[in-house]
Design brief:
By secondary structure, the protein is α/β, with parallel strands linked by helices. It has two domains: about 280 residues, Aldehyde Dehydrogenase, Chain A, domain 1; about 180 residues, Aldehyde Dehydrogenase, Chain A, domain 2 (3-Layer(aba) Sandwich). About 40% of the residues lie in helices and about 20% in strands. It is built from 15 helices and 21 strands. The strands form six sheets. It has a seven-stranded mixed sheet, with helices on both faces. The chain has a six-stranded mixed sheet with strand order 8-7-6-9-10-20, with helices on both faces. Strands 1-2 form a two-stranded antiparallel sheet. Helix 4 packs across helix 5. The protein is globular. The protein binds nicotinamide-adenine-dinucleotide. The site of nicotinamide-adenine-dinucleotide (NAD) has 33 residues, from helix 8 and helix 9.
Length: about 500
C-alpha cells in the first residue's frame, strides 16, 4: 500500500508543480489580479507542491460578485435538481477518493490511515445534506384566532467559508455542503498551509455540472484574502473554522457590514476517567482521541483527568502505549502519527514540554524531534503527567500529539477542573455509574459530551462549542438555521379590527 500511495503521488505531482494552484472564480481557474503567489511545501519531506496564487481584495471582489450573480438561479433551482446536483458532487468525490486522500496526506502530514476516509466522509456530508434539500425551506405554523402564521426559510445569499489547515478537505465539505443545500452560493478561502485539496473539491463540483459562480475558491493569506472576504458587502454570512483569536478578528472585521458569523474555534477538551470505568476501553479512547490525526484536531481530548485511585496504574499503561506509537511517513499505512503541519507549529508544540517541566509537570515520554527527521516537523508523541489546572500546558491549546494528565479525588473536583479553561468544545466521560454520567455530562461546560465513547459523529446532531470554543451549531437542521433566514408570513382570516386614524 505504501508503494502504491507513493506511485499515486508521483503520478500527480508533476502536473501540480507545473500548473500550481489557481483561484476558481466563476468556473474558471484564474491567476491573482496582482500576480502574487507563494510556494507550498509538504511537511513530509519539505518538497515543493508548486505555487499557490495569493489572493488580494480585488480577487475576493471578483469572486464575491460572481457568487452574487449566481445566487438567484441557484436559489430558485428546483429543489430536486439541487438535491441531484449534490449527489452528483458526492459521486465525483468518491471517484477521486484515492487521489484526494494521498494529496491531503502529503499536503498536511496527516496519516493516510485516517485520510483514506476523509474523501469518503466528505462525500457522505454531501449526500446527507442533499437528502435534506427538500425540507430545508420548511418552517412552523403558528396560527392565532385572526391569522394564519407560517414561517419559511430562505437562503441568506452568498456566504464566505474560511477553513483551517487541519483535515481541510473534510472540514470544507462540512461547511460547503449545507450552504449549497440551503441555496446559498459560496466563496471559499482555504488555509494557506494546506490549499491543495480545496481545488480538487471544487473541481469535483464543476465536473458534476455545478453552474459557474455558485462555488468560488480564492486562495491566499488570512490577513489579505481572508480579511477581504469577511469585509465584502456582497457576502451575507461567514462560516469560520480556526483559532479563537482569529474568530474574534472575524467578528470585528464583519461588524461594519453586519455579517452573520458562525465560529468553530479552539478547544482544550477533557477526558474524565472515573475509577469504575471500563479502563481498557477508556485507555484506548484517551490515546485515540489525542494521538490520531497528529493531535491536530479540535475535538481531541488534550487533558486527561484521572481519578487518583487508578492514577499510577493507568498512567503506566498509557506511557507504555504512547511511547510505542509509530511516527513516520504519513503515506505509509503503518504510520500512526505523521509530521506536524509546519516547522513553526513543531516549535510551538515542543516548547510546551519545556514549559510544562518548568511549571512542575512530569515528562513521561516524547517531547523531542524525531531522530533522522530533524529537518522536518516530526515530533515524538508526548505525555506529561502530574499537571495542575493552573499550568499553561493545562490551559492553552497545544494542537499536537501531546497529552496532559491531571489527577482528581472527587466528582466535584473533576467537574471543577474540567471547567477550569476558557474553552468548551467537547468533553469525554468514562464511568459505569449512570447517575454520575448524567450529572457530570450536564455540569461540564462544553457544546458536546460523549459518555463511554470516543468522538463518533452522527450528522443530524448539533456540533459546536461554548465559551471561547465558538458560536453557533452545525449539523442537520442546525446548519440550515445559519445559512437561511426565517421569514414569518401572516395572513388575516377575516376582518380583524384595524384602528382608524384620521377619521371624522
Ligand atoms: P487560523 O485561525 O490561523 O486560520 C484559519 C483560517 O483563517 C485560515 O484560512 C486563515 O488564512 C484564515 N485567517 C487568518 N486570519 C484571518 C483574518 N484576519 N480574517 C479572515 N481569515 C483569516 O487557524 P489554523 O491554525 O488554520 O487552524 C487551527 C485552529 O483551528 C485550532 O485552534 C483548532 O482548534 C481550530 N479548529 C476548530 C474546529 C472546530 O470545529 N471547533 C475544527 C478544526 C480546527
Amino acid at each position: 500500500m505504501f508503494k502504491k500511495n507513493l506511485q499515486t503521488l508521483e503520478s500527480i505531482l508533476p502536473e501540480l508543480r507545473a500548473n500550481g494552484i489557481k483561484h476558481i472564480i466563476n468556473g474558471q481557474h484564474v491567476e491573482s489580479e496582482g500576480g502574487a503567489s507563494f510556494e507550498n511545501f509538504s511537511p513530509v519531506d519539505g518538497a515543493s507542491l508548486g505555487h499557490v496564487v495569493s489572493g488580494q481584495a480585488e480577487d475576493i471582489d471578483k469572486a464575491a460578485w460572481a457568487a452574487h450573480a449566481a445566487f438567484p438561479a441557484w436559489r430558485d433551482m428546483h429543489h430536486k435538481d439541487r438535491r441531484d446536483m449534490l449527489h452528483a458532487i458526492a459521486d465525483e468525490v468518491e471517484k477521486r477518493a484515492e487521489e484526494i486522500a494521498v494529496l491531503e496526506s502529503y499536503d498536511t502530514g496527516q496519516p493516510i490511515r485516517f485520510m483514506k476516509k476523509a474523501a469518503i466522509r466528505g462525500a457522505a456530508n454531501f449526500r446527507f445534506f442533499a437528502d435534506r434539500v427538500i425540507d430545508a425551506k420548511n418552517g412552523l405554523s403558528t396560527p392565532d384566532m385572526a391569522h394564519v402564521n407560517y414561517t419559511i426559510r430562505q437562503p441568506i445569499g452568498p456566504v464566505g467559508i474560511i477553513t483551517p489547515w487541519n483535515t481541510p478537505f473534510m472540514l470544507s465539505t462540512w461547511k460547503i455542503a449545507p450552504a449549497l443545500a440551503a441555496g446559498c452560493t459560496v466563496v471559499h478561502k482555504p488555509a494557506e498551509l494546506s490549499p491543495v485539496t480545496a481545488n480538487r473539491l471544487a473541481e469535483c463540483a464543476h465536473a458534476a455540472g455545478l453552474p459557474a459562480g455558485v462555488w468560488n475558491v480564492v486562495h491566499g493569506l488570512g490577513e489579505s484574502a481572508g480579511k477581504a472576504l469577511t469585509e465584502h458587502v456582497a457576502i451575507r454570512a461567514v462560516a469560520f473554522i480556526g483559532e479563537t483569536t482569529t474568530g474574534s478578528l472575524i467578528m470585528k472585521q464583519g461588524a461594519p457590514t453586519l455579517k452573520r458569523v458562525h465560529l468553530e474555534l479552539g478547544g482544550k477538551n477533557p477526558v474524565i476517567v472515573f475509577e469504575d470505568a471500563d479502563l481498557d476501553r477508556a485507555l484506548d479512547a484517551a490515546i485515540f482521541m489525542k494521538y490520531s490525526l497528529n493531535g491536530e484536531r479540535c475535538t481531541s481530548s488534550s487533558r486527561l483527568l484521572l481519578h487518583r485511585s487508578i492514577y499510577d496504574e493507568f498512567l503506566a499503561r498509557l506511557t507504555e502505549r504512547v511511547s510505542k506509537i509509530r511516527v513516520g511517513n504519513p503515506l505509509d499505512p503503518e504510520t500512526e502519527v505523521g509530521p506536524l503541519i509546519h516547522r513553526s507549529h513543531q516549535e510551538k508544540v515542543l516548547s510546551y514540554a519545556g514549559i510544562g517541566q518548568e511549571e512542575g509537570a512530569r515528562l513521561m515520554t516524547g517531547g523531542t524531534k524525531v531522530k533522522g527527521q530533524e529537518d522536518h516537523p516530526y515530533v515524538t508523541p508526548t505525555l506529561m503527567a502530574d499537571a495542575d489546572p493552573s499550568m499553561r500546558l493545562a490551559q492553552e491549546e497545544i494542537f499536537g500529539p501531546f497529552l496532559t494528565v491531571i489527577p482528581f479525588d472527587t466528582e466535584e473536583e473533576a467537574v471543577e477542573k474540567a471547567n477550569s479553561v476558557k474553552y468548551g468544545l467537547t468533553a469525554y466521560i468514562w464511568t459505569k455509574d449512570v447517575g454520575r454520567a448524567h450529572r457530570v455530562a450536564q455540569a461540564v461546560e462544553s457544546g458536546m459530551v460523549w459518555v463511554n465513547s470516543q468522538n463518533v459523529r452522527h450528522l443530524p446532531t448539533p456540533f459546536g462549542g461554548v465559551k471561547y470554543s465558538g458560536i453557533g451549531r452545525d449539523g442537520g437542521d442546525y446548519s440550515f438555521d445559519f445559512y437561511m433566514e426565517t421569514k414569518n408570513i401572516s395572513i388575516a382570516l377575516g376582518d380583524h379590527p384595524i384602528p382608524k386614524l384620521g377619521n371624522d
